[in-house]
Amino acid sequence: MLVEARGLSKFFGVKPVFRNLDFRMDAGQVVLLLGENGSGKSTLLRILAGLIQPSAGGLDVEAEPGDICYVGHQPYVYPGLSAWQNLRFWSRLHGYSADPRRMEETLARFGLERVKHEPVAFYSRGMLQRLSLARVLCLGPRLYLLDEPSTGLDTRSREVLHEVIGEMRENGCGVVWVSHYPERDMPLADSVLHLKAQSGWMDAQAPVHSGTGAH
Q1: Cα R_g (the chain), whole angstroms
Q2: Are 191 and 29 in contact (CB under 8 A)?
Q3: Cα separation, 140 vs 137, whole angstroms
Q4: What is the largest CA-CA distance in the chain?
Q5: Which of 207, 208, 213, 209 is nearest to 23 (CA)?
């Protein structure tokens, strides 16, 4: 068991974001997180990442903070540094040696090798998103929390993202993945969590019965 939530609830003031949420995931599983805008998907990821606290309920995450990587709507990269310098900085911050070969391969995979020494302040939105994904891939955590990671990506980059998520599963990592394109992303999911807006209730965790991620 990698993550287990029991009666998890989050309120902002008196307004429920979600409540009485129960789910669990094991290592080597991909959970697709769906729901309308305002249903609490990003809030749930931030709770799993330890960035904010739940209002009620229990949560067990069997991973140290350094073994959790979060890709949110902000790129979390330093604009005055190059892509190469960003990867080196984040690797050292998490206690890893900055392996030049791994960094080179990761940047090439996301199509950033030609601009790796340019300040990321000049990157497009899609390039920043690719760099964010390269950053977490270099860190090799146990749990990946991906909030709409395909935002701004072109077709080839989305294909690479799918390949990478498949590799995360094969390596025994857990992935919680917010998507607005379930018809495209469902084949990679082992299970689905569907948050409902306004009501504050969540559908039961549902296994996926089709596609390569089925169990």
Answers
A1: 17
A2: yes
A3: 6
A4: 51
A5: 207
